[in-house]
Q: What sequence folds into this?
């Protein structure tokens, strides 16, 4: 690993570094080496193009059934904190907070659920669930 760090310090080209890294694939790194690599990478400013390429690489990646089963087994028995559950809930929201607040305001004014659903292009079921507090109960106006 020191070889890679020396190469980095000598400002070798990226392709040369990549070829050197391939020879170390499969090797177990010490914690000290991992910390050095981490320190070297911290604070690096990545270009938009670089970030887009990384994003494209991991989107729509198909996972094998064996991999999914291993993940499932590894996570069985783990209990998520309320904070984690809230983050997951917020990430799965389809409606924006502004629309939900608008629906709640219209419901308070006494406008029918059918009218609200037509006006805001949401299902009547969604308006109903917001009205009775089944969904988006955490958003208070």
A:
């Amino acid at each position: 690993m020191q070889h890679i760090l020396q190469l980095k310090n000598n400002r070798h080209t990226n392709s040369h570094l990549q070829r050197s890294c391939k020879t170390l694939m499969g090797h177990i790194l010490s914690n000290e080496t991992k910390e050095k690599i981490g320190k070297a990478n911290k604070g690096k400013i990545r270009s938009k193009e670089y970030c887009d390429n990384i994003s494209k690489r991991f989107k729509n990646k198909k996972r094998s059934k064996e991999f999914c089963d291993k993940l499932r087994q590894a996570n069985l028995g783990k209990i998520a904190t309320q904070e984690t559950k809230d983050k997951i809930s917020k990430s799965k929201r389809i409606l924006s907070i502004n629309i939900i607040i608008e629906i709640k305001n219209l419901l308070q004014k006494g406008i029918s659920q059918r009218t609200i659903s037509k006006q805001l292009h949401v299902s009547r079921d969604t308006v109903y669930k917001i009205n009775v507090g089944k969904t988006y109960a955490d958003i208070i106006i």
